[in-house]
Amino acid sequence: HLQEDWYTVQEIRSPTNYILDDQIHNIQTRAGETTVLRINNHRMPDLTIRKVDEQTGKGIEGVTLRVTKEGAKEYQDVTTGPDGVFVLEHIEPGWYIITEQRVPETHILDQTPHYIEVKPDQDTVIVIKNKAKPSLRIIKTDSVTKQPMQGITFEISIKQGKSLGEFLTDANGEIFLPNIEPELYVLREVKTLDGYLIDTQTKEALVEWGKTTEVEFT
Predict the structure, then answer these.
(1) Which of 98, 100, 103, 179 is the most exposed place for a label (fewest CB within 10 A)?
(2) Are 98 and 65 in contact (CB under 8 A)?
(3) Span 120-139, mean pLDDT?
């Protein structure tokens, strides 16, 4: 029961996870009437960050990113989970800057700042891709049984360049070199098992950024 007059109304505390509407509203009450003032609150949105492998599209776990609201000094460092995802829940709308701080050894650090606008009532998703570091896999099998051959020695060299050395195949018949430079490599078998003939055929392998190059020998 208010007297007939002009009143000012201002919201000073909003519901949890809603944006405060601090606009001052002027309303007039009249005798014998109920005056209704409707104030709408906008929901604070979520921001989902997805880090994925550029080639496979699979999520990358363990990437640390710095999230800064444009114009603010404060920031928040977040780390992606097993699915390559981190969700910032109920954040203030506005423009955000996302910069990568650390990445697993399998991938290349993305140094590009990413800008994303987060709007009221709208959950936003940003997908940021990483290139995988290049790698080389040699697979050695018995030509008849198709079984892997362990203990075969290969020399790996950059074409018209230096040798990386000699390497032995493991129990899976494989030699795996992660995080090597993108180059054209020459692969040569130099020692095999008793009872087998050395495969005298050399093969070339082009190793490129973001890819695992596989070469098979029998």
Answers:
(1) 179
(2) yes
(3) 94
State how far the Cα of 164 lies from the Cα of 150, in Å rounded to an integer: 20
pLDDT averaged over every residue in the chain: 94
Strand order in the sheet with 114-118: 75-79, 64-69, 94-102, 114-118
The token pair that represents 218 in the structure block: 């029998």
Quickly count: other Cβ atoms within 10 Å of residue 34's Cβ: 6
Amino acid identity at 173: G
Max CA pair span of the chain: 109
Are 13 and 20 in contact, with CB atoms under 8 Å apart? yes
Place of tokens 């008849």: 144
Which pLDDT belongs to residue 83? Answer: 95
User: What is the DSSP secondary-structure string of 145-165?
Assistant: T--B--S-EEEEEETTS-EEE
Residue spans of alpha helices (H) in the chain: none
52: amino acid identity, one letter: V
pTM of the model: 0.67
Of residues 212 and 90, more confidence is placed in: 90
**Residues facing residue 167 across a β-bridge:** 154
